[in-house]
């Protein structure tokens, strides 16, 4: 499996592998019944110790039908010949019932927040079904939106794999997933221009990350200092504090050391780090959990929806009969919501039967009247 770009820069990929147990594969199938029932099957493949440590909220309670097994790996060059497979299935009465399990947000989530919306409309001879599923933005710090730093196209460029980026010299621009038949060999000058653009985009993305992380931490620290009876020296403390965090490389070392941010803050404001943490232990623990969520990067997803009737429209990458499939990765919902939509139709048997019965009744009345005449 190809390793994806790290989201927290400066962190060794080997550490992420240790932290999250390597790559985790999620295969989610939802069967949508005509009456609105939803049958969800979740298959997770990965290291058995990491199944519940990923971004997806893998169920483990008794309301689910759960089974586990080992399967042979598809790739022969992996060290282990088998992979652990965890499977869970449950029937939900409706979309609200499912959202109670996957869509609740307690304020700080260590998992993806998922929202499902299912609608059914009667349109004469057909029933029209609309299904939408949204994976909420994974990055858990929200003081400033990504749109203040990157355009939609720039974000697409950043999230794309390197082999999917193409520099177009005549327009001095970067295309994502261009027509592979038109491959231009870049000159040294063009290569430098290409690199300059991608470097600029990556710096703006990192700036967005840092600003949001620092804003959250600054609010936490200042409230904690107030509890200790300490006051900030000047209104310029915020920007100076951010530069201090940069000099301490708090972001780079934060995943390996839970105390990295606290130690940096304690050093800047000249307080004891243990005393600072003790002033709001839950708040600092929450920040550390959110910071770890920001580093997920080694997960792939396959989301499959089986609709009643036949598919009439969808933004899925694959469509077959009454089934649509999206194959995506954490990048696709890291900085913004990722929404999957599909619409289908089926014959309205009840309506058709009613019309047929009415026609037969009218025909019968007509025949009776003719006989009487």
- The strand count comes to 13
Structural class determined from secondary elements: alpha+beta
Percentage of residues in DSSP E strands: 25-35%
* Helical content (DSSP H or I, runs of 4+): 25-40%
The H-and-E topology, N to C, reads as HEEEEHEEHEEHHHHHHEEEEEH
Q: Domains counted in the coordinates: how many?
A: 2
What separation lies between the terminal Cα atoms? 81 Å
The number of distinct helices, counting runs of at least 4 residues, comes to: 10
Dominant shape:
elongated
Give me the side-by-side strand order of the main sheet. Answer: 3-4-2-1-9-12-11
Largest sheet, strands/sense/barrel:
7 strands, mixed
CA radius of gyration is 27 Å
Which spans of ≥5 residues are poorly predicted at pLDDT below 50? 1-6, 9-21
Arithmetic mean pLDDT? 85
């Amino acid at each position: 499996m190809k390793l994806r770009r790290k989201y927290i820069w400066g962190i060794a990929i080997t550490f992420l592998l240790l932290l999250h147990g390597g790559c985790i594969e999620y295969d989610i199938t939802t069967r949508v019944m005509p009456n609105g029932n939803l049958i969800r099957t979740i298959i997770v493949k990965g290291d058995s110790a990491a199944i519940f440590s990923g971004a997806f909220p893998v169920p483990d309670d008794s309301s689910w039908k759960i089974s586990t097994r080992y399967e042979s790996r598809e790739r022969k060059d992996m060290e282990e010949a088998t992979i652990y497979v965890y499977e869970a299935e449950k029937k939900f009465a409706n979309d609200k019932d499912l959202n109670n399990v996957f869509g609740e947000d307690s304020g700080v989530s260590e998992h993806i927040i998922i929202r499902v919306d299912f609608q059914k409309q009667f349109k004469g001879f057909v029933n029209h079904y609309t299904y939408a599923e949204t994976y909420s933005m994974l990055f858990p710090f929200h003081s400033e939106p990504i749109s203040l730093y990157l355009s939609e196209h720039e974000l697409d460029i950043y999230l794309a794999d390197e082999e999917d980026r193409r520099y177009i010299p005549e327009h001095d621009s970067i295309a994502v997933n261009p027509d592979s038949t038109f491959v231009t060999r870049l000159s040294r000058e063009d290569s430098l221009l290409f690199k300059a653009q991608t470097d600029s985009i990556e710096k703006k993305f990192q700036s967005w990350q840092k600003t949001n992380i620092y804003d959250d931490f600054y609010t936490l620290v200042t409230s904690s200092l107030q509890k200790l009876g300490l006051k900030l020296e000047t209104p310029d403390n915020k920007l100076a504090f951010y530069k201090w965090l940069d000099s301490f490389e708090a972001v780079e070392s934060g995943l390996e050391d839970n105390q990295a941010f606290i130690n940096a803050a304690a050093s800047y404001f000249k307080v004891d780090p243990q005393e600072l943490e003790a002033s709001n232990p839950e708040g600092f623990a929450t920040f550390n959990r959110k910071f770890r969520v920001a580093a997920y990067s080694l997960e792939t997803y396959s989301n499959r929806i089986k609709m009643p009737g036949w598919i009439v429209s969808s933004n899925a990458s694959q469509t077959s009969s009454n089934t649509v499939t999206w194959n995506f990765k954490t990048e696709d919902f890291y900085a913004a919501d990722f929404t999957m939509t599909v619409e289908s139709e089926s014959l309205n048997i009840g309506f058709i039967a009613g019309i047929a019965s009415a026609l037969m009744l009218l025909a019968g009345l007509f025949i009776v009247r003719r006989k009487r005449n």
